[in-house]
Amino acid sequence: MLKGWVESRFGLVPIFHKQRLGLFPSAGWAVYLEEKTDSRFHDNCIHQQFDLLYEYCQWSIRRFHAPGPRFVRLWRGTNNVEEQLVEGDPRSGRCTVRLNNLVSFSASKERADEFGDWVLETEVPTVKLLFFPGLLRAHVLAHESEFLVIGGNYKVRAHHGWF
Predict the structure, then answer these.
(1) DSSP string, the chain
(2) Is the pTM of this model over 0.70?
(3) What residue numbers bound the domain in which 101 lies?
(4) Could you list the pLDDT tens digit for every one of the 163 residues in the chain?
(5) What is the number of structural domains in the chain?
């Protein structure tokens, strides 16, 4: 649902959905499109609810200047940095990666390290935040200090293993 929302609102198509999507058409794209258009995911005006969440997140950032006025430093663990590489060499420490159209990041580099051999560190523009810890009183993402971020290309500092 969320990937479809990002695609419809920002024009960013996903690059991964249960598998790398690759070129269109493919079996992976067929699964994604089938699930995206399934009527069970379109009850209760779900896209409008995500619009409201995004607008509330952006209003909250402007109003309270949290988690930061323009950028927030975040970390993401991954095992397949080479598949995401657009430019540069992760072993040199700096590169550009293409992330899925919606991705999760952690506010903790130690937590991000639990999700892969590589940890990507980047400055995320706050306009790309859909959700951040503390936005809602109780939420399912609280344990991992998880941020939901609109994807695309990101310049990152890549760290291999524990740093």
Answers:
(1) -HHHHHHHHH----SBSSSB--SSSSHHHHHHHHHHH-GGGSGGGHHHHHHHHHHHHHHHHHHH--S-SSEEEEEEEES-HHHHEEEEEGGGTEEEEEEEEEEEEES-HHHHHTT-SEEEEEEEEGGGEEE-TTSSSS-TTGGGTEEEEEEEEEEEEEEES--
(2) yes
(3) 2-160
(4) 788 889 889 988 887 766 677 777 777 767 777 777 776 666 668 889 999 999 999 999 999 887 777 999 999 999 988 888 889 999 999 999 999 999 999 999 999 999 999 999 999 999 999 999 989 887 665 566 799 999 999 999 999 875 5
(5) 1
